[in-house]
Amino acid sequence: MPDLYDVAAIGNAIVDVIAPATDAFLAEQGMDKGAMMLVDEARSAALYAAMAPGLEASGGSAGNTIAGIASFGGRAAFLGKVANDQLGQVFTHDMRAIGAHFDTAPLIGGKATAVSMINVTPDGERTMSTFLGASTEFAADDIDPVVIEGAKIVYLEGYLFDAESARRAFAKAAGLARASGRMIAITLSDGFVVERHREALLGFLETQVDLVFANDTEIMALFQTDDFDSAVEQLRGKVKIAAITRGAQGSVITAGGETFTVEVFPVEKVVDTTGAGDQYAAGFMYGLATGRPLNVCGQLGSLAAAEVISHYGPRPLVSLKDLAAAKGL
After folding, report:
1. What CATH number does the domain containing 314 carry?
2. Looking at CB atoms within 10 Å, which of 51, 117, 194, 277 has the fewest?
3. Is residue 25 part of a domain?
4. pLDDT tens figures, 9-51
5. How many helices (H) and strands (E) does the chain have?
6. pLDDT band at residue 164, thresholds of 50, 70 and 90?
7. According to the model, what pLDDT value does residue 189 have?
8. By the 8 A CB rule, do 101 and 147 touch?
9. Residue 21 main-chain phi, psi, to 5 deg
10. Could you give phi then psi for residue 167, rounded to 5 degrees?
11. Full residue range of the structural domain in which residue 89 is found
12. Alpha helix (H) residue ranges in 244-314
């Protein structure tokens, strides 16, 4: 199979509603600052009514990463489930408009397209309340073998571990990727995902995954330790490559016996951290797919993360390809 894509991602297809909020508003609504919580459709609607005016944009963690890959000039594909409704049509249009391949059949006559209510406090921290809707109906039958077998890197979104059908889709995709000699990557997505599915995630990492993305909170939760260095060493023994982000402290990359520390790119003001990890993964995988050294992959990730936290919204507003060229990357 020829290389059709640099990265093919499987994830929740979600439309984001992003609005400014205060810490007091989060407390009033019973939300844990900085976390992602799952809500039903009624709670999602009530929260939407209570939130400040904001913007709506196609999102979802893996979808945001694919948008970043495309912005770098990479060849990208996305697999995820939307409903045959207005928001589903918006999501489909947005993915195709950035040049990504997206051809998953929509859900008809079932749940509505997924929506994530994202409240951003003045410090740039985002707190998400997500109605997963139609995205949870993604199943093994939605896996396109041509896409998976034709991608240099197959990227899986940890949030999908919340749905049994999606985990079966993961297994099918991993099998196809492994048989075709493709690299398998996963993002742990959120500390609460790790807490809910620790054993399943550990098993999947050990048997299927080549590259893992996580932040410091997630890997410490994965190994149930408060010692970051210990968690890094344990993760090193389970996957070929690990890229761990640490907010303002930059990121740590491990591969075999090598470790790289990558600094952040400075930004004038942190406006909204939504999508920072997603764009870091985009830059890193774009670099890996195009033959860059691991430290440069980390720098591309940091550059993409810096761009996205400088404005509202989880996807780049300027060409990451042009930014990378300007930085000599």
Report:
1. 3.40.1190.20
2. 51
3. no
4. 999 999 988 899 999 999 999 999 988 888 999 999 899 899 9
5. 12, 14
6. confident
7. 87
8. yes
9. -155, 165
10. -65, -35
11. 5-14+59-113+133-326
12. 276-289, 294-308
Q: What CA–CA distances, in Å, run from 46 to 29, 37, 40?
A: 10, 15, 10
Task: Tell me the C-alpha distance between 29 and 26, whole Å.
Answer: 5
Classify 125 as helix, strand or coil: coil
Estimate the crossing angle of helix 61-71 against helix 276-289, to 10 degrees. Answer: 50
Q: How many domains does the chain have?
A: 1
- Residue 124 domain flag: no
In the structure, what pLDDT confidence band is assigned to residue 104 with cuts at 50, 70 and 90? very high
Query: Which amino acid is located at 76 in the chain?
Result: A
**Phi, psi dihedrals of residue 243, rounded to the nearest 5°:** -120, 115
- Average pLDDT of 247-260? 93
CA distance 281 to 305: 9
On the 0-12 / 13-18 / 19+ scale of CB atoms within 10 A, 2 is: exposed
The backbone torsions φ and ψ at residue 93, rounded to the nearest 5 degrees and listed phi first, read -60, -45
215 assigned to some structural domain:
yes
Question: With contact defined as beta carbons under 8 Å apart, do 130 and 115 qualify?
Answer: yes
Residue 55 has pLDDT above 90, yes or no: no
Kind of pairing between the strands at 126-131 and 114-120: antiparallel
With CA atoms as reference, report the closest residue to 94 among 10, 5, 155, 13. Answer: 13
Q: Report d(CA 300, CA 312) in Å as an integer.
A: 20
Measure Cα distances from 199 to 147, 164, 211 in Å.
Answer: 29, 14, 18
CA distances from 172 to 70, 129, 205, 206 (A): 25, 29, 15, 16
Token duo for residue 314: 């989880």
